[in-house]
């Protein structure tokens, strides 16, 4: 049986993180992806990228409508390895932290938490205030992983894609999925 991973895309800036997550997982035969995007994510996609909705949906094995609360991913009886929300807006984070969800995007995250599965949120906001920090702390205390897409300059990135691929690779690594985009730290080189 394939490992099911939910990929959620919220309306925060950084649509490319969700897109690259789906693209990376598409080549992993052992993974079945379930995509859910907020309506604001659709707007962000059109502002930040040249991808069509069809381009994005073509990368997923299963696509769920954000307002479909009867979707398989809305129930804990539908077994998944967990969920990656890339990017995760502060609104989505706050809904997850409160347990009061208004869409399939945040409901699926809530289900992942209640079933004690892996929830990884690539939160995107700066600067952040105490309310944001409190929401992050709450989700972390409940078992979620807060993984902001922070560039790693030790990889000596040459392009924006290098930076995105590394951040996505770190998140997928949390699910046991290794990608070419993840360059691991090998320590400080010794002088000869």
Plain-language structure description:
This protein has 192 residues and is of the alpha/beta class. The protein has a single domain, classed as Flavin prenyltransferase-like (Rossmann fold). The protein has seven helices and six strands; from the N terminus they run E-H-E-H-H-E-E-H-H-E-H-E-H. It has a six-stranded parallel β-sheet. The model has no long low-confidence stretch (mean pLDDT 95).
**What would you call the shape?**
globular
Tell me the domain tally.
1
Total number of β-strand segments? 6
Largest sheet: 6 strands, parallel
Mean pLDDT: 95
CATH superfamily: Flavin prenyltransferase-like
How does the SSE layout of this entry go?
Layout: E1 3-9, H1 15-26, E2 31-37, H2 39-48, H3 53-57, E3 62-64, E4 82-88, H4 90-98, H5 104-114, E5 118-123, H6 130-141, E6 145-146, H7 160-173
Parallel strand pairs: 1-2, 1-4, 2-3, 4-5, 5-6
Helix pairs in contact: 1-7, 4-5, 4-6
List keywords for this structure.
192 residues, alpha/beta, Rossmann fold, six-stranded parallel sheet, 7 helices, 6 strands, 38% helix
Short characterization:
By secondary structure, this protein is an alpha/beta fold.
């Amino acid at each position: 049986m394939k490992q099911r991973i939910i990929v959620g895309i919220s309306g925060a800036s950084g649509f490319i993180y969700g897109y690259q997550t789906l693209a990376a997982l598409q080549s992993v035969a052992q993974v079945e992806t379930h995509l859910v995007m907020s309506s604001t994510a659709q707007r962000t996609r059109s502002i930040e990228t040249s991808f069509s909705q069809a381009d994005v949906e073509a990368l997923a094995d299963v696509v769920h409508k954000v307002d479909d609360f009867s979707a398989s991913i809305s129930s804990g009886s539908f077994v998944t390895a967990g969920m990656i929300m890339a990017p995760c807006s502060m609104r989505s984070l706050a809904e997850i932290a409160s347990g009061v969800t208004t869409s399939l995007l945040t409901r699926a995250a809530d289900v992942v938490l209640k079933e004690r599965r892996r929830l990884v949120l690539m939160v995107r906001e700066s600067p952040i205030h105490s309310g944001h920090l409190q929401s992050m702390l709450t989700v972390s205390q409940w078992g979620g992983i807060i993984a902001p897409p922070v560039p790693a300059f030790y990889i000596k990135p040459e392009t924006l894609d290098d930076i995105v691929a590394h951040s996505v690779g770190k998140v997928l690594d949390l699910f046991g999925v290794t990608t070419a985009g993840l360059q691991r730290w090998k320590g400080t080189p010794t002088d000869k």
